[in-house]
Amino acid sequence: MAARRSERAAAPAAQKGREARATSRMAEGGDDAAAAPKAGMGLGDAMGIVTFLLLIAAIVLTDSMLGKQYGGGMFFK
Helix, strand, or coil here: 15? Predict the structure, then answer.
């Protein structure tokens, strides 16, 4: 147990060199990634389109069944 405590105390001194390298890499690559716009459709847009299409399909199928079974559909009689 005593050996583990001494290793923890020594770890922050060895970590200073790693932090400097990591932050310099992030600073170099961060500018290019932030400047490029995202291409394509987002998840929210795709979910909106899919929901709209499923709603229209449900209305048409419901009207079709009303027209076939009861003769009272709006589009299908």
Answer: helix
